[in-house]
Fold this protein.
Amino acid sequence: MQAITKYVVGVVVAIEHNGKVLAMKRAANEDAAPGAWELPSGKVELSERPYDTACREVIEECGIKTKIEMQPMDAIQSKRNDEPMILIIYRAKYLEGNVKLSEEHDEYAWLSPDEFAVRTPFASLVPIVNGMFKN
């Protein structure tokens, strides 16, 4: 039996800076994946295009200026708390600003692709992050 996708689309933004990617640790009191390291992400709102969601989520979750590529890098099926979803992944270059985390996150780090592979529980994102640095 095929799983029903609860979230039709989620958007993930891989922000690159000096050969590293921005990862944020979810606060321990969060219902969804507490303590997990992830990239800036969120659900597409009713009136948004996925690209607009990417721009909004970067501002809401980390408060920095980026240049997000218009075309997604990839789209994959994934799960969060055992809920199936489809993720659209965008690539962004860090431009400026200090990271200001939303209340959903309590820590951030600029991780090498290898560090990201070790820290994230979202294994499906690892090959995409690794592939970013080969382009």
Remarks:
- The helical segments are 50-62, 113-119, 126-132.
- The first strand starts at residue 7 and ends at 17.
- The chain has a mean pLDDT of 86.
- The two ends are 37 Å apart (CA to CA).
